[in-house]
Design brief:
Blueprint (H helix, E strand, L loop, with lengths): L1 E5 L2 E2 L2 E2 L1 H11 L4 E7 L1 H7 L7 E5 L9 H11 L5 E5 L2 H4 L2 H8 L3 E5 L1 E2 L4 E6 L4 E6 L5 E5 L14 E5 L27 E5 L9 H10 L3 E4 L1 H5 L20 E5 L5 H4 L7 E6 L6 H4 L2 E4 L2 H11 L1
Parallel strand pairs: 1-4, 1-6, 4-5, 5-12, 6-11, 7-11, 13-14, 13-15, 15-16, 16-17
Antiparallel strand pairs: 2-3, 8-9, 9-10
Helix pairs in contact: 3-5, 6-10
Length: 304
């Protein structure tokens, strides 16, 4: 058995954290090969431990995550692999359903555990139940929810081999519009400070951001905070937002609805600051502070 993982490449750079966690998830299945679009990203990918070969797709048609061409290339390589997948990121989730359709197999999405070559676990009902999926498809196509895995190290030295294959001209890249931020990326940040409806306004979110900057953390938000216009959409954590599992998650003025917990409950240490001692967030918090966030958060920031 061999596994082909599509590596996320953004703006020419390997998304190392997501890819390293995806490698960790599948390494028990057999030899792991990474398909990487781009020269610099391929060099980085070759350093990941547990990877035995990097397939470098050098043709510009595969750059910018162009899904139609990447899917065509993966299908042309599929004969060598029993398993084909990648991290459950926007980049990979754009490609894998096309691969599965072209191979006429199912996609096993958001895998949180690999039981054996045919059997996988994945969360359902906003993470309230874990489904065990046994697939009889000849080839398994899947995405990995990286939050539950540890990144492999970067002491490897895999061989890099150039690959070419079919391309599709159904679409063309025009430009990427990416929100620029000096803060760590939300899904791979080691610390996340999130604000909810309790923060009260866009202006008041400054105190959440000040604490985040003190801790070199990413900023997150509940959907209520996003819907109220306090925080931008790409900060949303939860079932319909991003899934995070940092070492430390600080929830400020967030009640702890199941849809929010679905996006952060795998965090290693959860701190909740809420003025309502009955708030459900305290049931999953490792440390709970019953306090007014407008006093506690600035005080914490200044003490840090
Ligand atoms: P609230 O529930 O209003 O809680 C605000 C909290 O702030 C309260 O606990 C209050 O005690 C506290 N507070 C108020 N003032 C202060 C103060 N001064 N100091 C300290 N504490 C204070 N939600 C998500 O977050 N992410 C999702 O992805 C998501 N997806 C959803 C998908 C679906 C299909 C549905 C139906 C809902 C989804 N939701 C999601 C919404 C979710 O159900 C909740 O409505 C939302 O998470 C509530 O956000 P909140 O905790 O900020 O607000």
């Amino acid at each position: 058995m061999a596994v082909l993982l599509l590596a996320d490449v953004n703006d020419g750079q390997l998304a190392t954290d997501a890819v390293a966690k995806a490698v960790d998830a599948v390494k028990s299945l057999g030899e792991v090969h990474l398909l990487v679009a781009g020269e610099a990203a391929a060099v980085e990918a070759a350093k990941l431990e547990g990877v035995s070969k990097v397939l470098k797709a050098a043709d510009a048609a595969y750059d910018h995550g162009m899904a139609e061409s990447l899917a065509a290339l993966i299908v042309s390589l599929a004969g060598n692999y029993s398993h084909i997948g990648g991290a459950a990121t926007a980049y990979v989730k754009n490609v894998m359903p096309r691969v599965a359709a072209l191979l006429d197999v199912m996609v096993i999405s958001d895998v949180t555990a690999v039981i054996d070559a045919d059997t996988f676990e994945r969360p359902i009902y906003a993470g309230n139940a874990i489904q065990t999926v046994k697939s009889s498809d000849a080839k398994k196509v899947f995405s990995i929810r990286t939050a539950t895995f540890n990144a492999v190290g970067n002491g490897g030295s895999a061989a890099v081999e150039a690959v070419s294959g079919p391309t599709a001209d159904l679409s063309a890249w025009v430009e990427d519009k990416v929100a620029a931020s000096d803060r760590p990326e939300l899904t791979s940040a080691k610390i996340v400070v999130s604000g909810g409806r309790g923060v009260g306004s866009k202006e008041s979110f400054d105190i959440i951001e000040a604490l985040a900057d003190k801790l070199n953390a990413a900023v997150g938000a509940s959907r209520a905070a996003v819907d109220s216009g306090f925080a931008p959409n790409d900060w949303q954590v939860g079932q319909t937002g991003k899934v995070v599992a940092p070492n430390l998650y600080i929830a400020c003025g967030i009640s702890g609805a199941i849809q929010h917990l679905a996006g952060m409950k795998d965090s290693k240490v959860i701190v909740a600051i809420n003025k309502d001692e009955e708030a459900p967030i305290f049931q999953i918090a490792d440390y709970g502070l019953v306090a007014d966030l407008f006093e506690a958060v600035p005080e914490l920031t200044s003490k840090l």
